[in-house]
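[step 3/7] inverse_fold.run input=structure_tokens len=263
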């Protein structure tokens, strides 16, 4: 059953494409007003905002907050609270990736990946929690990864960030346990998104493989179902976590990885 999210406000980081955009549409489809976020072309982002608002009959705002800057994250949360009446749902979805051997991993890439995948969720949670406590209800949902529990070669920063994100989520769940707010991770395996597609050339170079070999022998090799997870499946899981039926699910890591982490 789709939860009734009318009068709720959701902030979804990294939501102008892929998983984030699908989650934004799912939450708006359940009646939530939403704040989408991303970088890139301003006209394209405004078009997405208008499309979500018109399709679902909700208010949709856009924030250009850069996830590397704490002050911009705080401004985004404040905007949601001031213009939409609160922050009830926070989806930490923004993420970047880089693939390289440890000894060749650029320090600036390490800093950026840790910053966007781990530090940004901390700042967003820190800013959103007071609003959830005042409302006596909230949902913090972070898009983690199978790499929140398992490691893969050449992904030192990403694996470290996702392990940390799961730990941060557990702490948030414990601190919010009596507040009416929950905090959980959804951990997909490989989802066919721009983020996954963009890492294929780096993996080809790092492992000396063709594009087809990377897809079949690296990406889908980890997933016993031999199928990519879809963005819609992740969005449906996020929608469920916003329901009353999920009110006692907190501090959880929901694996959606085709059996990857069952091995």
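[step 3/7] decode complete -> sequence:
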């Amino acid at each position: 059953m789709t939860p009734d999210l009318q009068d709720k406000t959701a902030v979804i980081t990294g939501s102008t494409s892929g998983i984030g955009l699908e989650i934004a549409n799912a939450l708006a489809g359940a009646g939530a007003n939403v704040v989408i976020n991303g970088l890139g072309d301003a006209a394209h982002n405004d078009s997405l905002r208008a499309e979500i608002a018109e399709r679902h009959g909700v208010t949709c705002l856009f924030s250009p907050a850069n996830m590397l800057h704490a002050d911009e994250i705080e401004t985004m949360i404040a905007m949601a609270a001031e213009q939409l009446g609160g922050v009830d749902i926070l989806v930490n979805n923004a993420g970047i990736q880089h693939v390289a051997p440890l000894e060749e991993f650029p320090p600036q890439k390490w800093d950026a990946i840790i910053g966007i995948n781990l530090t940004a969720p901390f700042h967003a949670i820190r800013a959103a929690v007071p609003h959830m406590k005042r409302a006596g209800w909230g949902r913090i949902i972070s898009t983690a990864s199978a790499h929140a529990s398992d490691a893969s070669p050449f992904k030192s920063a990403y694996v470290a960030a996702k392990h940390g994100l799961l730990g941060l989520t557990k702490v948030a769940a414990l601190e919010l346990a009596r507040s009416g707010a929950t905090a959980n991770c959804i951990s997909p395996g490989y989802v066919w998104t721009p983020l996954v597609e963009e890492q294929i050339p780096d993996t080809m170079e790092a492992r000396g493989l063709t594009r087809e070999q990377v897809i079949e022998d690296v990406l889908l090799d980890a997933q016993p179902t031999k199928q990519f997870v879809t963005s819609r499946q992740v969005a449906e899981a996020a929608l469920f976590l916003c329901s009353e039926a999920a009110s006692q699910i907190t501090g959880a890591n929901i694996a959606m990885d085709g059996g990857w982490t069952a091995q």
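[step 4/7] annotate
The chain has a mean pLDDT of 95.
The beta strands are 9-12, 33-37, 60-63, 89-92, 138-143, 181-188, 253-256.
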